[in-house]
Amino acid sequence: MRNTARALLPLAVFFLFTACHSVPSASSAPAPSSPIVATLTASPNIIVGRVLSVDVVRGFAIIALAPSSPASAFAPDRELLTRSDDLGVTAHLRATRQFRSRTLGTVIISGTPNLGDEVIFPTSP
Length: 125
Known about the structure:
Blueprint: H1 2-20, E1 46-55, E2 60-65, E3 79-83, E4 89-100, E5 103-111, E6 118-121
Antiparallel strand pairs: 1-2, 1-6, 2-5, 3-4, 3-6, 4-5
């Protein structure tokens, strides 16, 4: 039994490596007639955190601040934006003086923020 296992080990390794290696076929995809060149640039927006709690009746939202958010991004009366996962803006917020630990209280100016929405500090490009 032990000799059989020793004999089959190189065979198993051979099949493992040949199965993981694939050769692309020449006719798999047509070459584009004009190359598409896209340049990526960094976003000028600063991520402040995520919406932790929303009270639409009283018009405020609590933000869980990201560890990398600068203090200038959540200064009192600073305008912030919330956006969903598809990067669509859902609400405009104004930062208040209600700051404790890693949470920030904000007043909803317009829109309706959702739980988990990303909060950004829009900067000019």
